[in-house]
TrEMBL record:
Annotated keywords: ATP-binding, Membrane, Nucleotide-binding, Transmembrane, Transmembrane helix
Annotated transmembrane regions: 165-198
Chain sites annotated for binding ATP: G358, A359, T360, R361, R362, G363, K364, G365
Full protein name: FtsK domain-containing protein
Matching Gene3D superfamilies: P-loop containing nucleotide triphosphate hydrolases
UniProt cross-references to PANTHER family, sorted A to Z: DNA TRANSLOCASE FTSK, SPORULATION PROTEIN RELATED
Length: 717
């Protein structure tokens, strides 16, 4: 296609005529127009616009007005007939407001004062000396500060209460006195409604109706067939099976209940779960059979739940993501896993000792992270973590951990020694109060609940890994045996579920078990207990593509299939920041309270492992022999230490070498330890001689002065 254009040099008479008028002015040329003859305007005819669907006709409008009037009347009658409820709510509302006022008055000052008092009591229990005086005066000062703060807070609270009370009562009285009857009625209604608003029920008053479902494969007829095929009910009695209620949606599956014929208990069906699953055409994991324990139930009522897909194929986020505020792990537990029906299963930190096992990368760390996030939010829990893998996965928790140590069997051995000593203190504490075991009201006074976690037990308990193995195993067994009643709990995780790592005596006392996927049914049994794989609880059958899925057995839940919640690395910081603030406000961060266990560790080793040590990552820097001598000499408060004091300190850190042996007399031990110390100093090339120093009772005896120790330290390259 081509377009013809007029060459620019060719004159165009029409254009020339138009431009001539502008070149010479309007007077020089006649007026021109490009439209020759103006056409008359065409008048378009529109179709009448249809009325939009939202616009009501007169009739509809009238009908709507009638409905609105009737509905308003119904609503008013309903509200009037229910006003006794609202009065009840109102009373409850004002009671709640009073309680809130009372709580705001105390805030958490009472707890802080209790902690300061505890510090004072603990300081008084220390041996006499400067350290005790310092600790006592620090605790007393803290107590006074807390009391003064509480007093000031109460004063502020009273002032606020007074001002708001004056405004409300004064304003109300003036309005009631000046206004007429209507004002008084409106005010009375406002008073009742305000109370009713704060006293409204917390849960839906009416339970949601069970929604029937058309996709249900369950029903009375289906259940008759299934129970006969599975051999639970003889064919001739199938007609006696009765459905209870209707099949309804419950989480990702459908639930139904049936009454078995008389004389056949529901437990018979529980024993034939596999055959029932097969008759229903689903995997056993997709089905849940239970004895119906609801009100009005009986021993023959079987509750059945079936899903049309694997309920653990979904990944669920932890409910702690986005959660604000404290948790109560003693009563409610920490939400760490979900069950088949998508229900949250919480683990109470009360008297549970737990063993978590499974092959590598199967989700043990994730389960522990869930537990730790929950525990972080209960300020009464002292979380102590020994990470045998020495990975960075627990670093985010560092600043709230009362103890955090990576891959250090010697420190774990010392730590367990300190815990055993603390168990004695705890049991004396309960003895004095005539209690057999720890109760909730005594948690704060006793110093909190100890939650000790050992992630990768094999690092510490497998034979030949360190010279501390036997001691660690023995002490773990003792803690597992007696700790629960004293508020000292153990959680041990292992990739190697072998008897060599989890000794029988230890396993017996770790009563809660969680088995992630294992390599063999034998390994599964090492965690869950002998014969459990044969009963269907075989962790080696857990699909590999479902990390975090496990068999869990606790006294609260029985043995159930669960999967841990997912917490991504980015989810942790906000939860931990919230936990940090909660602990800070309650004075329960590492360093804010007197921790008898860390205190002992620091005295024995010279370094603290609270909040992961100096670097906060669980790598605890070791202290040399001279540094240890310096710590002992400073610790006496006399700038020197007697031989007996030095040997005792060394025996605490290295009992195998410096400890007093069974049957060894004091004098023999002292001379052996003295020789060992001399040899060790010589082998290090340190020039340090024992000389006469002042003992704790003012006597002159052999020992080391702080000045000599410092000179020897400084002389070293
Ligand atoms: N409940 C879960 N939902 C989804 N993914 C999970 C779940 N649990 C664990 N995972 C994923 O599985 C992988 C392994 O998890 P984790 O590190 O907890 O295993 P582990 O058993 O502690 O491993 P290791 O023994 O090597 O320490 C991670 O990538 C994690 O994201």
């Amino acid at each position: 296609m081509s377009i013809e254009t007029t060459p620019s040099s060719t004159p165009d008479p029409k254009w020339e005529r138009i431009t001539a008028a502008y070149q010479t002015g309007p007077a020089a040329a006649p007026a021109v127009t490009i439209v020759k003859d103006r056409q008359p305007t065409v008048a378009f005819e529109f179709e009448p616009r249809p009325r939009p669907a939202w616009m009501m006709s007169r009739e509809e409008l009238k009908q709507w007005a009638v409905y609105a009037r009737d509905n308003t009347l119904d609503w008013t009658v309903y509200q009037l007939t229910h006003s006794p409820y609202y009065l009840g709510w109102s009373v409850r509302g004002y009671r709640r407001l009073c309680l809130r006022w009372w709580e705001a008055r105390h805030d958490d000052y009472r707890q802080q004062i209790a902690t300061a008092k505890l510090m004072l009591r603990q300081a008084r229990e220390m041996p006499r000396g400067e350290a005790r005086a310092a600790a006592e005066s620090k605790a007393r000062a803290l107590l006074e500060v807390r009391r003064a703060e509480f007093k000031a807070h109460k004063k502020r609270h009273w002032i606020r209460t007074g001002i708001s009370g004056l405004v409300v009562v004064g304003g109300g009285t003036i309005a009631a006195a000046v206004g007429g009857l209507w004002v008084q009625i409106l005010m009375a209604m406002a008073v009742v409604l305000t109370g009713a608003w704060f006293g409204r029920p917390e849960e839906a008053v009416v339970a949601p109706v069970q929604a029937p479902t058309r996709t249900s494969r369950l029903g009375e007829d289906a259940m008759r067939r299934v129970l006969v095929e599975a051999g639970v009910v003889p064919e001739k009695r199938a007609g006696e099976i009765r459905g209870v209620g209707i099949p309804h949606q419950d989480g990702p599956g459908i639930a139904y209940a049936v009454d078995l014929p008389s004389g056949i208990p529901a437990t018979v069906a529980l024993g034939k779960a596999e055959s029932i699953a097969s008759a229903l055409g689903v995997h056993q994991d997709w089905m849940d059979l239970e004895l119906d324990r609801s009100a009005g139930s009986n021993a023959s009522r079987l509750s059945i739940w079936v899903s049309s897909e694997d309920p653990f194929s979904v990944v669920r986020r932890s409910p702690l993501v986005g959660h604000k505020g404290p948790l109560d792990l003693w009563n409610d537990g920490a939400p760490i896993v979900f069950g088949k029906r998508g229900n949250t299963v919480s683990i109470r930190v009360r008297d549970t000792m737990m063993l978590v096992g499974g092959a590598t990368r199967r989700g043990k760390g994730m389960l522990i992270a869930n537990l730790n996030l929950g525990a972080a939010k209960d300020v009464r829990v002292n979380l102590r973590l020994f990470d045998g893998k020495a990975s960075g996965e627990h670093n985010a928790f560092g600043r709230i951990l009362a103890t955090f140590v990576k891959k250090d069997p010697e420190r774990l051995a010392l730590f367990l020694r300190a815990v055993l000593e603390d168990l004695d203190r705890r049991s004396d504490f309960l003895d004095e109060r005539g209690k057999a075991k720890l109760t909730e009201d005594l948690i704060e006074e006793i110093g909190g609940i100890e939650l000790i976690e050992i992630d990768e037990l094999a690092t510490y308990t497998a034979r030949g890994t360190s010279r501390f193995v036997d001691e660690i195993v023995e002490n773990l067994c003792q803690i597992a045996a007696v700790g629960a009643g004293l508020g000292v709990l153990l959680v041990c995780a292992t990739q190697v579920p072998e008897v060599d790592v989890v000794r029988g005596r230890l396993r017996q006392n770790l009563i809660a078990r969680v088995a992630m996927n294992t390599e063999s049914p034998g390994a599964s049994n090492t965690i869950m207990g002998d014969g459990m794989a044969g009963q269907g609880y075989d962790a080696s059958q857990i699909p590999l593509n479902q990390p975090g899925r496990n068999w869990m057995s606790t006294p609260d839940t029985g043995t159930i299939g669960t999967r841990s919640f997912l917490v991504e690395d980015d989810d942790k910081p906000p939860i931990l920041a919230d936990a940090y603030e909660l602990r800070k406000a309650a004075g329960r961060l590492p360093g804010q309270w007197r921790d008898p266990i860390e205190e002992k560790l620091t005295a024995w080793t010279g370094v603290s492992s609270a909040a992961g040590g100096e670097r906060g990552n669980g790598r605890i820097v070791r202290v040399t022999l001279l540094e240890r001598l310096e710590i002992v000499a400073r610790g006496t408060g006399r700038d020197c230490a007697t031989n007996a004091e030095v040997f005792r300190a060394l025996a605490a850190t290295d009992p195998a070498k410096y400890g007093q042996r069974d049957g060894e007399a004091e004098r023999a031990w002292s001379s052996r330890a003295g020789k060992l110390l001399k040899d060790e100093l010589e082998s290090l090339g340190v020039d340090l001689e024992a000389k006469k120093v002042t003992g704790p009772d003012g006597e002159r005896t052999l020992g080391y002065t702080l000045a000599d120790v410092l000179t020897a330290r400084n002389a070293r390259p």
